[in-house]
Amino acid sequence: MSVRPWRSVLYVPGDKPRAVEKARTLGADAVILDLEDAVAPEHKDAARENVAAALRTPWPCPVLVRVNGLGTPWEHADRELALRAGADGLVLPKVEDAATVRDLHLRVPLWAMIETPTGVLHAAGIAAAPGVAGLIVGANDLARALRTRPDPARTPLLHALSAVVLAARAHGKVPLDAVYNDVRDPEGFERECGQGRTLGFSGKTVIHPGQIEIANRALGVSEVEAEAARGLIAAWTQARQEGRSVATYRGALVEQMHVDEAQETLALWEAARTDRPLA
């Protein structure tokens, strides 16, 4: 089974060459070199040059480039850079409809950021659009647009978060959870990672190196989970070899969907352990 872990996806400002180089060594499952919100207008050109230089040498993980949005002065130069420099994907902010994606005709996978109420309402169509690899929640802009109040449990955003997961999973795409702003609160970050995993997200976008290990652990496969997956598969295999139509594991009925889930769990566990370049 071919899978790739997306537990931690690190944003790095494109105009910070030292931070970009350090990102190679931090153990994130993927990196987003940012040309948009993290870069001031007067630094956009320098950031583009830094990103181009960084992409000239191999990385140990997929590298995506977040470009400036449609209608901005930098959109065309950003996209041209991402395409020519060999980025593994392009992150497009504030996507609100499938037509926007279809009209771009990109030659690299596109990751659509869902950051507005309209984007949430059209998430299914966006996920279904050709070339889209995944959906990324932009909760800061979304919360502002929805006029929500701060809530550690993200209660006002739960409907939108689940809508993004539902849209992505329905079309076989990767859903990534939003960033956690307070880098001084690892306990709160870990709780939100757990919530994201419970909701069905594949991973978490992060903004600080200290968040990577927590996200990898909270959204990854533990040894205990891997061992349980092996046991379930073994119980299923033994039942079939003995000609039994029903298998049980730890007192629960085992069906094909449980076996499929266990196989995916083991594939993710193995991919994270070996850092294999899987699709």
From TrEMBL:
Single Gene Ontology BP annotation: oxaloacetate metabolic process
> Is the keyword Lyase assigned to this protein?
yes
Query: Which InterPro entries does the annotation name?
Result: Aldolase/citrate-lyase_domain, Citrate_lyase_beta/mcl1/mcl2, Pyrv/PenolPyrv_kinase-like_dom, Pyrv_kinase-like_dom_sf
List cofactor names only: Mg(2+)
Residues bound to substrate: 66, 115
- Domain named HpcH/HpaI aldolase/citrate lyase is located at 7-209
Can you tell me which residues bind Mg(2+)?
A: 115, 141
Q: Which residues cross the membrane?
A: none
Picking any one GO molecular function of the record gives: lyase activity
Q: Show the Pfam families listed in the entry.
A: HpcH_HpaI (PF03328)
Keywords from UniProt, A to Z, are: Lyase, Magnesium, Metal-binding
Provide the protein name: CoA ester lyase
Q: Name its species.
A: Deinococcus terrestris
